[in-house]
Amino acid sequence: MMWSPVITFLLLTLSTICYGENPGAKILVKEQGLKKGVEYLVNKLMSNNTEYQLPDVSGSENIASEDMNYEFTQIRLVKFHHGNILSDWVPETGMHVSMENGSATINCNWKIDSWLIRDSGRGILTISGLSISMMMGLRRIDPGVPSISLLDCQSSIHNVDIQMLDGVSYVYESLKQPLQDVVRATVNRQLCSAIRSQSTKWDESVSHLQLNVTLNPFIDLDVSLVGNPEITDSYGCLGLKGLFRTHNESHSEAAFSPAPLNISIQDGAMIYIGVSQSSLASLASAYYSAEFLTFQVSHMEGSKALTTAELATYIPEISQHFPNSLPVKILMYATRTPMVFLHSKNITVQFGGSLQANAYSSEAKHESIFSANIVASFQVNMSMSEAIGARGMNLTASMNLNRLQIEGSQPKENKVAVTEKAVQQLIHGLIIPSINENLSRGIFISSSFLKNATVYPEEGFATLAANIQ
Ligand SMILES: *[C@@H]1O[C@H](CO)[C@@H](O)[C@H](O)[C@H]1NC(C)=O
Ligand SMILES: *[C@@H]1O[C@H](CO)[C@@H](O)[C@H](O)[C@H]1NC(C)=O
Ligand SMILES: *[C@@H]1O[C@H](CO)[C@@H](O)[C@H](O)[C@H]1NC(C)=O
Ligand SMILES: *[C@@H]1O[C@H](CO)[C@@H](O)[C@H](O)[C@H]1NC(C)=O
Ligand SMILES: *[C@@H]1O[C@H](CO)[C@@H](O)[C@H](O)[C@H]1NC(C)=O
Ligand SMILES: *[C@@H]1O[C@H](CO)[C@@H](O)[C@H](O)[C@H]1NC(C)=O
Ligand SMILES: *[C@@H]1O[C@H](CO)[C@@H](O)[C@H](O)[C@H]1NC(C)=O
Ligand SMILES: *[C@@H]1O[C@H](CO)[C@@H](O)[C@H](O)[C@H]1NC(C)=O
Ligand SMILES: *[C@@H]1O[C@H](CO)[C@@H](O)[C@H](O)[C@H]1NC(C)=O
Ligand SMILES: *[C@@H]1O[C@H](CO)[C@@H](O)[C@H](O)[C@H]1NC(C)=O
Q1: Span of the secretion signal (predicted)?
Q2: Are residues 374 and 272 in the same domain?
Q3: Which pLDDT belongs to residue 269?
């Protein structure tokens, strides 16, 4: 009994060591998604390898009570059809991929040597009823990259047909069957060893994947793996770091501690990508450190130029100071990292910054109308649709002002003293429509294989659910 607190303590300590780091993002792939993905990969790998060189085959066989040496060289796979592809997740291990009833056409040179006959020529092998079954292991290795391994491989060939194009045909008719048996056994032996060496190459290339992705000259995204993939009968799930950072930012990592992210699987979609609130917070922080959060809100593309007269409809006092209407520019910039809150029914963004309105008497000369430090909370809606005229998705959004407060006292050089209510109305009537006009045009996300994507918030994260085509 006296040991149990110690053991509990040890277990807790161990569990924080092993699971201390939650992924900031997750990619969950359902069986149908795996199937589509494997089909895509097989087609991609095979479409290029129309001419695949295979190792030479030689040996000696006792055929019709004669010892016969044979040699097949210059063996080239010229046509391959994989047949039916089946794939499943294998819980806690990886995946099982099989091809059934595939076929192949192979060109080769042959040489036969026995006391009865010595001859050579070209030949065509047609292989049918080809089946390959592979068990692949999938895990994480340091420093957070995937590793794949071939755990098991089995193959069988139902039928081989040899056509010998040169030489004396009647001789080969009698040799054909035994030769076909030899070739079938040999090709079958070679298949899995060829796949084994290929899978070593695949592992080599996935383990060299660059998982610190450069998004723009200032911001990186770290998508290295956090922990081994979680694999069940119905899905495989990769936990990714999901941390955005500026190139010169090294200290932010300690503050990055995502909450557990539990994607709710809904019927239908093949792939789910969950992005945590922490991950979005690191994005906001990186944008803020890179000084990207300055908006000229009144002069966004498409919206007409703003004037002091127009501004006076929100803040009447302005017309006293600017009897002649002048063009106005409103600048809004963040003075701290914006915060994003994801809930199951709503997304809220909290923005702390400064709002400045300047009147331009000429291109180069301007004077401040007012400036104010604000804390504003916005509610955001997002939706995803197919992009028009390009392969990809179109993310559109709209926002609403929830709350606004003016922080601190207004600067002395303000011509106009603004009230909270006036700024609220200004943001509501002028700035939000202008931002929404911009957001409604959509952000294009290039993607050649995601289809019918939807995006929705959940408690603490946002999910993108899609099909794979
Ligand atoms: C396929 O062929 C293209 C062009 O020849 C080449 O750039 C690409 O790397 C090849 N892909 C594979 C998987 O071999
Ligand atoms: C195997 O493939 C051949 C054509 O390549 C087809 O005629 C045959 O019906 C297939 N058999 C099965 C069991 O799918
Ligand atoms: C990504 O970059 C970080 C910081 O520069 C580094 O600690 C980490 O090992 C890198 N991850 C990979 C997978 O290269
Ligand atoms: C995730 O959610 C499902 C139900 O949606 C629940 O059964 C499961 O226990 C949750 N897992 C974790 C780790 O919270
Ligand atoms: C990081 O880079 C940004 C953009 O180049 C720069 O504005 C900022 O001052 C830099 N921060 C540090 C801590 O060096
Ligand atoms: C957003 O949703 C959460 C829980 O679903 C709720 O507690 C919160 O009040 C909502 N916020 C707004 C601004 O509607
Ligand atoms: C995105 O959606 C908006 C609103 O429906 C539309 O105006 C815009 O043309 C779309 N953009 C693309 C690239 O599909
Ligand atoms: C978001 O959508 C809800 C329901 O469709 C709607 O009531 C609300 O006004 C929308 N909010 C914004 C900011 O567009
Ligand atoms: C408005 O849209 C343009 C291009 O569509 C973009 O460059 C600009 O950053 C957007 N502004 C805001 C505040 O989103
Ligand atoms: C996308 O949705 C449409 C309509 O619901 C459906 O017809 C189509 O098959 C879907 N595409 C994919 C790849 O799931």
Answers
A1: 1-20
A2: no
A3: 92
Ligand 3 centroid to residue 221 C-alpha, Å:
10
186: which 2 tokens? 């040999």
Domain contains 130:
no
Question: Is residue 11 in a domain?
Answer: yes
Q: Which of 177, 87, 82 is nearest to 129 (CA)?
A: 82
Quote the pTM value.
Answer: 0.82
Could you report the per-residue pLDDT of 349-404, keeping only the tens digit for each? 999 999 999 888 887 888 888 999 999 999 999 999 988 888 889 999 999 999 99
The token pair at 27 is 């990619």
Strand partners, 119: 112
CA distances from 123 to 70, 178, 352, 381 (A): 13, 16, 76, 65
Same domain, 240 and 300: no
Q: Determine the residue of 346, 379, 461 to mutate for testing ligand 6's pocket, defined as the one with the most ligand atoms within 8 A of the Cβ atom.
A: 346
Residue-number span of the structural domain to which 247 is assigned: 1-48+83-102+137-289
| 232 close to ligand 4 (CB < 6 Angstrom) | no
Q: Specify whether 25 is located in the same domain as 152.
A: yes
**398 and 261 in one domain?**
no
Ligand 10 first shell, C-beta below 6 A: 451-452, 467, 469
Instruction: Determine which residue's CA is closest to atom 13 belonging to ligand 7.
Output: 387
8 Å CB contact between 63 and 178: yes
